[in-house]
Amino acid sequence: MDWAPDSVIVRLGGEIWIKKSWTRRWYLRRLVRNIRVVLEHYDVAYDQIIRRNGRVFVATCEAQASAKRLSRIFGVSSVSPALNTGTDLDAIVNVSLSVAQRILTAGNSFAVRCKRVGKHPYTSQEVCRVVGRRILEALADRKVRVDLDNPDLRIGVEVRDDLAFVFAEVIKGVGGFPLGVQGRIVGLLSGGLDSAVACWLVMKRGCSVVPLYFDNDPYTGESVNKRTVEVARVLSDWAVGFPRSLYIVSYGASLKEIVEGTPRRLTCILCKRLMYRIAERISDRVGAEGLVTGEAIGEQASQTLRNLRVLDEAAERYPVHRPLLGFDKAETEMLARKIGTYEVSARSVEGCEAVPYKPATKAKLEEVMEAESKLDIKKMVDRCVGGLAVVSL
Amino acid sequence: MDWAPDSVIVRLGGEIWIKKSWTRRWYLRRLVRNIRVVLEHYDVAYDQIIRRNGRVFVATCEAQASAKRLSRIFGVSSVSPALNTGTDLDAIVNVSLSVAQRILTAGNSFAVRCKRVGKHPYTSQEVCRVVGRRILEALADRKVRVDLDNPDLRIGVEVRDDLAFVFAEVIKGVGGFPLGVQGRIVGLLSGGLDSAVACWLVMKRGCSVVPLYFDNDPYTGESVNKRTVEVARVLSDWAVGFPRSLYIVSYGASLKEIVEGTPRRLTCILCKRLMYRIAERISDRVGAEGLVTGEAIGEQASQTLRNLRVLDEAAERYPVHRPLLGFDKAETEMLARKIGTYEVSARSVEGCEAVPYKPATKAKLEEVMEAESKLDIKKMVDRCVGGLAVVSL
After folding, report:
1. How confident is the model at residue B18 (pLDDT cuts 50, 70, 90)?
2. Do A298 and B201 touch (CB under 8 A)?
3. With CB atoms counted within 10 Å of each terminal CB, which end of chain A scores lower, N or C?
């Protein structure tokens, strides 16, 4: 759109409005902090970030560029590049008209909408009426017309106390809650499609994710490691201002003990149970409140409802959160495209060679525990946690 | 569309195709059983249901009506009302032409697509070419034309071994896995938006849900009970052939003990922990593999990441599945509309009067356990489970 906005209106998700006032204030503060670090991280120039009546306004000479960045900040429901104006009706009308002159072409239909909070000598309806009439008069030669139901272009006026803005576009934001309003969570990240989307979903709801990767070498190869690092980087881009690191556990030796010392059909279940236990210890260390995994019901043999119960039993002190439980693969893929992990995650890599041909789909807890009794679980956990590496992304 | 199909092509979700052959066969058998009971339940006349090469074909004189029903069966990715034809090219061409004559109007563009599995004396491309040419010739007076990229209408030909069909419409199905391929799960159903959607999501992935409702009378009123029964009925309509019943626990007396005997800020957390414990006992009784709840991170004070950990601790023997963890309210609402529970769930009812003004958002497990030590939890659970009512829907 060929006009030069000097601000961005940032709108918050509807869910924030039903919070109690103190919670809402805290969420807003967090959001403003996140906005600041994102703009600074991406070198987007801005003059100030203003909070007013539950909206956030960013004054910036790079409004279009920053609107795009801002729409990808968790907690933002939509953004609009806008022109700042005085709150007196004349000023609003003049700026609205100049925007209309830039964006309306011959024969276009338009509508004017106004949202107003605070005390002003005019009503919202008055603003719409006056602005609309003025545009019709001034652009009579372009034969523009009003269409309230299905206009070609919408001109928006937003008045909040001492501030007023005119905008012509609403860009959908990513939604959710500001990152950091919930606690920390350890994300079991394999580099595949599911786990990355699962981590992103809890980030969207405000949780800071500590990504944890189990390196299964020699059962998987270097390409899997590389893929995971790349996926973790994409996720980090959604969490600017939060630590950019990947926790890596050398898991191959433990997996070897499982493969060689227990029934093959139980390999995946025993492998995951051990992962949960290690992740719990790492949760202790980083002060997390739980684990998050990419498991979806029935997605793999180890993820039948029965097996999920057997897996869950191994996590004794933290909940295992599985935001993809009800997702179809196609839905997860769609989300991965939006997040930006799809390209990397869908890349063909060698599968884990430890996966048996016929894995158990209905494991019994007793047989699993009997198999585990043949392993020195405590030693395996200690070894893995002891050898933990933290890689900067 | 004004033509008289005599069959419905039922296509399965992509995820079913990556299952091992024995799992896939079992899923298909289950799907065919579910199709049969749905058609019989809704009195849709059909002659036979045929499985062939991973597709299901339903021969029915009510193809349009049954297509709509079939598209809402879990495991179905899409359906097409279709005309059955012989597999020789002449027959296919003739039936395709008769369909084209019915649906193509003057100036329409069209494309022909063919999917073929089995041995036939022609290729798929040949079918498209011959059918397309024949339609162009026969409908020359209507000035129809071929547009492979963006046609007004698509004519599809599906050949599987000894069966062939022609169709002109693909209706999106609900996806997921056939209901019943996973085990049973106890669904904590409040009648509100979230819990119903959560139950539906695990049903979509194949789980049979046993809906469990806690009647908080006198903290909630009769309207809440009524609403839950209605929501449970809507969910049951997605599970034709499975038990239509609602499990109801009289919970008011227990909630009263919590409200009166423990710190008010912990009421919701203690209430939910007790619900989990009761639900576990009911899981034992019905042979379920876990619980499912509508909790989403940060959606309510009791659902902060910290509090979810404290809640989870109370479920000792079953996993608590929370498919909405990463959902925004707006996303849940959208799904509720699709499911059909929105209208009922969004109805205004009295809120629970036991909810405190300032509930704890960061409860500590120790304080929660101390508060519980003042209650006779075992007695409360026994009383609730003892008074369980099972209501037919």
Report:
1. confident
2. no
3. N
In a domain, A249, yes or no: yes
The reply to whether residue A308 touches residue B319, judged by beta carbons under 8 angstroms, is yes
Alpha-carbon distance B266 to nearest alpha carbon in chain A (angstroms): 17
Whether chain B has a CB inside 8 Å of the CB on A296: the answer is yes
Render pLDDT for B196-214 as a digit per residue (tens, 0 to 9): 999 999 999 999 999 999 9
pLDDT tens for B62-117 read: 999 999 999 999 999 999 999 999 999 999 999 999 999 999 999 999 999 999 99
Together in a domain, A50 and A91:
yes
Residues of A in contact with B279 (CB under 8 A): none
Q: What is the dihedral of CA B198, B204, B205, B207, to 10 degrees?
A: 80
Cβ pair A33, A26 in contact under 8 A: no
Give a yes or no: residue B350 inside a domain.
yes
Q: How many CB pairs under 8 A join A and B?
A: 133
Q: What is the pLDDT of residues B146-183, one digit of tens each?
A: 999 999 999 999 999 999 999 999 999 999 999 999 99
Closest chain A residue by Cα to residue B20: A358
Contact A185 B305 (CB under 8 A): yes
| CB < 8 Å to B302, chain A | none
Structural contact between residues B108 and B142, judged by C-beta atoms closer than 8 angstroms:
yes
3-state secondary structure of B44: coil
Task: List Cα–Cα distances, A369 to A232, A273, A301, A377, B391, in angstroms.
Answer: 33, 11, 19, 11, 38
Residue B345 lies in a domain: yes
Distance CA(A375)–CA(A386), nearest Å, equals: 18
Query: Are residues B151 and B48 located together in one domain of the fold?
Result: yes
pLDDT above 70 (res B221): yes
pTM for this predicted structure:
0.95
Encode pLDDT of B262-279 as tens digits: 999 999 999 999 999 999
Q: Which residue of B has its CA nearest to A309?
A: B319
Helix (H, G, I), strand (E, B) or coil at B380: helix
What is the DSSP track for B153-204?
EEEEEEEETTEEEEES--EE---S--TTSS-EEEEE--SSHHHHHHHHHHHH
Q: Which distant-in-sequence residues (6+ apart) come within 8 Å of B285 by Cβ?
A: B385
Q: Does B322 touch chain A (CB under 8 A)?
A: yes
- The CA distance from A76 to A74, in Å, is 6
Domain encompassing residue A151: 7-172
- Reported in sequence order, the residue ranges of B44-133 that DSSP labels E, i.e. its strands, are 48-52, 55-59, 76-85, 109-117
CB of B312 less than 8 A from some CB of A: yes
- Tell me which residue in A206, A308, A323 faces B290 most closely, judged by beta carbons: A308
- A183 to chain B: closest CA residue: B305
In a domain, A254, yes or no: yes
Question: Which ipTM value was assigned to this complex?
Answer: 0.94
